[in-house]
Amino acid sequence: MGTLLSNSFLLALFMLMFSVINSEGFPPTLEPICGPTHPLDAIPIYPDDVHLLQFALNLEHLEADFFLYGALGYGLDRVAPELVMGGPPPIGAQKANLDELVNRIIEEFGYQEVGHLRAIKTTVGGFPRPLMNLSACNFAAIMNDAFGYPLDPPFDPYANSLNFMLASYVIPYVGLTGYVGANPFIKGWKTKRLLAGLLGVESGQDAVIRTYLYERADYTVYPYEYTVAEFTERISELRNELGMCGIKDEGICVPPYLGAENQTTSNVLSADYNSLSYARTPREILRIVYGTGNEHVPGGFFPNGANGKIARELLHYYKS
């Protein structure tokens, strides 16, 4: 009898304590709180956000088809044809002669870019894939410009894993700096979240590419007399020259005054004096990817110019 009364007393005490806890505002459940994900009174998308994020589609399309073709031998037309939106197929894209490790990395990158395209187009809308030149001849021309004379034989990005990773060094980093540059101009919570997610993965891709190349920094790129480090240095110098807005690009090895805290010559991640990512504007990006140093004059990766309001308005000055 005494045990029964004791148990009844403990049960009553427990129920009393539980009711007091609830009355003090504690949640009646042990489920974790996972929100809010944004300010409740915030605007999701501002009109000015749309064109900046749509501009990024040009680079995302470029990366998607380059990576997909390099790893799989086919591109967006087969993997996600709805994202092409009737745009023309890329010029000269092909399967690269990759080892198993690099093929897996590049295949993953390719599918990531498909997700990026879908995320942008479903959030702010989009436009058809622009005409893109992913031919070996175009990459050879870029390398010739980087070294200041024609390489012999012409550089072939699809010849082997190292060449493909050097060619990959040419593209994603430009998009990365574009996202950093767009950040101060993005206002909506939904578009901010989109940009942050895109920037995170693009930065990761660039880090993987740069780490792969840094591990091989002293390798000679056959059949040339230049090392991997020298290739990255020349490519970065070319992009700085075309961008025309100072140093925003650095190779995988740098003099100490460009290293982290002026202490390192390794440069696995390209960054400024405070180790923050460099930023570029759409005009700078177009000067680089056109290869002309002029945002009004198309060429390079985009023979007919990039798509979207920002790029087409700048192109209008060239045609008028």
TrEMBL record:
Domain of life: Eukaryota
Record carries keyword Magnesium: no
Pfam family, one: Ferritin_2
Keywords: Signal
Statement: the UniProt record of this protein carries the keyword Signal: yes
Signal peptide residues on this chain, from the entry's feature table: 1-25
Name used for this protein in its record: Desiccation-related protein PCC13-62
